[in-house]
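Researcher: Let's try something more involved. This one mixes different molecule types, so please make sure each is placed in the same coordinate frame as the others.
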Amino acid sequence: MQTIISNATIHTGTQILENQTIIIENGLITNSEQKADAKIIDLQNKHISAGFVDIHINGGEKYYFTQNATEETIQDIYESSLKLGTTHVLPTLITSPLDNILKGIEATRAFLEKNPTSGVLGMHLEGPFLNLAKRGAHLAAYIRKPSNNELEEIIKYGKGIIKLMTIAAENFNEEQIEMLLESGINISLGHSNATYKQAKNAYNQGINLCTHLYNAMTQMGHREPGVVGATFDSPDVYAPIILDGFHCDYAAARIAYKIKKDHLFLISDALFVGEKVKQFQWEEFDAYLENGQYRNSEGNLAGAAVSMADCVRNAVQQVGISLEEAIKMATIRPAKALGIDDKIGQIAAGFPAKFVIFDKNLTDFKPLVL
Ligand SMILES: [Zn+2]
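Model: All components are placed in one shared frame. Result:
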């Protein structure tokens, strides 16, 4: 059975098309001819793009992945993100003991086996080999220096499941970074106290993105440009940014966009989705929702409370980025950063029929999964 999406402004990921149709068969976009008995979905001039891709999301409406490293949490993260137009996610497990990391890996593996065509891409392991000086809300007790033994365990169990891992590269030796890169896991530089030179070395070794630009990293000083400066000075390095208005000033985001151009993209880094959870405690990690932000009892930001749709709206309305660009920053660019832009993040033949529909005022984002 064919489905035809008609009467829409189509953001393909590379261009905007007016008055064209999208033809779908068996859950995939196709180039084949329109059939007479096809089901028609008339979008009445709304906009459509590939669904948003969120590579940094910590919890759903109910559960927090690091606290409940289970299939139920992955389902919660996926479903609650989907409601707001995010069709692809990397549930993010933060700094915790090795047995919890392995539990998260196994839960993700089981989920992927049962739901091979869902939008869950694998997992993001943020930590535990971070720099204590830039731990943010991560628990100091579980932050540790990388040992070959633990890295080997993580790679052995996480290969093919962990799609992204955040590390403070300055605490690794070259062989350890090489070991991670060779395993096929995308490595991101974050929660890092690296100097400009250390960060440049990490990027030169093959690390091709950073974690939540500006947050939990050395800032750009004129004599020591830090991780931020190294990221700005490395055109091929991707930089995800949290546009909730709290994690960085919108002017700082505008400057980053001018420098990083098509290598700046959006993440939610949401602690929970939809502001359903107002307060939260996991061991020493606590968070309270107030005025659209989660803060811990020390007053530090403890993850965001926004969706990818909110970030797209803020990119356009607060930062001044064009709608076309903002949509790319939530779709094809995160896909490119992970090297999976041939599979998701575009409207083109062979890509999954997982979309987000929205109006030009960006007030309403709805998923469409066929
Ligand atoms: Zn973080």
